[in-house]
Amino acid sequence: MKHEKFHYKSLEEVREKERELGVEFPLSERLEVLKEPLTVAGHRIANRIAIQPMEGSDGTAEGRPGELTKKRYERFAKSGAGLIWLEAVSIAQEGRATPGQLYITEETLDSFKALVEEIRETAWRENHIQPVIIMQATHSGRYSKPHGYPEPIIAYNNPLFEKDKPIAGENIITDDRLMEMEERYGQVTRMAQEAGFDGIDIKCCHRYLNCELLSAYTRPGAYGGSFENRTRFFRNAYSSAKSQAKENFIVTSRMNIYDGFPYPYGFGVSEGKGTEPDMTEPVRLVGMLMELGMELVDITIGNPYVNPHVNRPYDMGAYEPPEHPFEGVARMYQCTGQIAKAYPHLAVISSGPSYLRQFSPYLAAGAVEQGYCSMVGFGRESFAYPEFIHDLFEKGSMEPAKCCITCGKCAELLRASTPAGCVIRNPEYAKIYREMQKKG
Predict the structure, then answer these.
(1) CB 79 within 8 A of CB 387
(2) Going by C-beta distance under 8 Å and a sequence separation of 6 or more, which residues neighbour residue 33?
(3) What are the residues facing 204 on neighbouring strands?
(4) CA-to-CA distance for 363 and 34, rounded, in angstroms?
(5) Is-contact 281 227, C-beta < 8 A?
(6) Which residues contact 259 (CB under 8 A, 6 or more apart)?
(7) Fewest CB atoms within 10 Å of the CB: 28, 51, 84, 210?
(8) What is the DSSP letter of 351?
(9) What is the mean pLDDT of each run of 10 residues along the chain (440 residues)?
(10) HSE, side-chain direction, 13 A CA sphere, residue 24
(11) Element (H, E) at 327
(12) SS3 38
C-alpha cells in the first residue's frame, strides 16, 4: 500500500489499519506490565522501558561529554526509565562518526564518571529509582568522520552503496587491525567499569564496522566468507570485553538481526530470497553469544543512512518509502519476536515503537505481554518527549501534542555533524537546525 502519514485518533483506528493492511504487531491495553521490574545479571531494572542510545554529536574535541550532552542525560535521568543506554562512544579516534562524538580514553575517563554520577543522582532525586546505565562502545567504520568529512574504514566494498565508485583499497580494514580492535574492546570495558557504568554494549548495528562484517561474504581472509569468519570479530570483541568484566557487569550488544539488503550484501537474508528476512543466522549468532555469557540483547534492524524506513518508519524523510509505515513496525516486531521466542531466558529489548506516537505504550505492553521482548526501547521519542515515561506511569497516557512526529530532522542534524536533538519540541535544536540550513 502507498505510504501514508500518521492520522490515527484512537487505538481502534490503529487496529483497523492493521487489519486492512494484513499486518500484525502486538497491542495490549494492560499498560501495568510496563511497570514490572526485570532482573538482568544481578541488576534490578525498575521497569520495562529503556532509553535507546540516541547520539547527540555534542561532545568536546577530546571526546568528553559537552554541555548539551549533560543537559540531554539530565532529561533522560528525569524520565523514569529503568534503563538508560548511553549513546555511541568511540573506541578509536579514527572511528569517530563526528568530531563531536564521545570518545573514552584514560584522559576523558573522569568526565564519563561524572556524567554517570549525575544521571544516578538525578534519577534518584526525581523518581527514587537507580537506572541501569549501559555504555555503547563503537567503531563507526564506513561512517567515520573524525574531522568532519568522510574518512571511511570499510570491511568490504558494497556496490549497493558505492555504485560504480568503489572506495580505495587502503580504506579496507586489515585483519591485523581488526585483531587490534578486538583487544581494544577489553580495554574500553575496563574503563567503562571505572566510570561506573553497569554494562557495555559491543555495538553491532546500522552498518557500522562490526555490523558490516556480518555480511562480508565477499571479503577474503579470516573475517569474511563463512558464517564463522563473518561473526569472528563480533565474537572475539565480545569475549575480549567479557574477559575484563567483573562479576555482574553486563556485556551486551545493540545488534542488527536484519539489514534489509539482499544477499550477499545483507545480514538476516538468504540467497535468492531478495530482502525477505531470514532469521536463521541471527538466531544462531545470538545463541553463540549466549554461550559466551550474554544475558541481554538490544535488537534493531535496517540502516538509518540508506533504508531508514526499515528501522525508523516515518512521515517525512529523504524519499517516499515503498511500504506503509505499519509494515515497518510489524517487521521490526516479527524479527525481534523470533529471537525472544528462540531464547526465552534471554532478556530482549525491542526497538522502533515511536512511529505509533501516543499509542506506542500499547505496542510496548503488547510486545512484553506476548513474549516478543522483555523490554521496549524508545529512541527518537526520548529526544522529543523525554518525560513521556513519567506521564505514562503517573497519568496513564502520553500527550499527543508532545510526541515525536517522525519528521527525521534530528537525523538530519546528526548527518551534518552538528549537535542533534528534537527540532520540533526543543527550541535549542530548532535554532541549530536553522543555522545548518543557512550554511547549506
Answers:
(1) yes
(2) 48, 365, 368, 369
(3) 255
(4) 11
(5) yes
(6) 207, 211, 215, 265, 266, 267, 268, 269, 301, 302, 303
(7) 28
(8) -
(9) 90 98 97 98 98 97 98 98 98 98 98 98 97 98 97 97 95 98 98 98 98 98 98 98 97 98 98 98 98 98 96 94 96 98 98 98 98 98 96 96 97 94 97 93
(10) 4
(11) helix 325-342
(12) strand
Q: CATH fold of 11-404, please?
A: TIM Barrel (3.20.20)
List the one residue out of 409, 435, 414, 388 whose CA is nearest residue 34. 388
CA–CA distance from 280 to each of 270, 285, 342, 377 (Å)? Answer: 9, 9, 11, 24
The rounded Cα 387 to chain-centroid distance in angstroms is: 20
Separation CA 8–CA 392 (nearest Å): 19
CB contact set of 176 (below 8 Å; sequence gap of 6+)? none
Grid cell for residue 5: 502519514
Domain boundaries, the chain: 11-404
- Segment holding 134, helix H or strand E: strand 132-138
Q: Which residue has the cell 580494514?
A: 173
Whether residue 99 is preceded by a cis peptide bond, meaning omega within 30 degrees of 0, is no
Q: Which residues contact 386 (CB under 8 A, 6 or more apart)?
A: 51, 75, 76, 78, 79
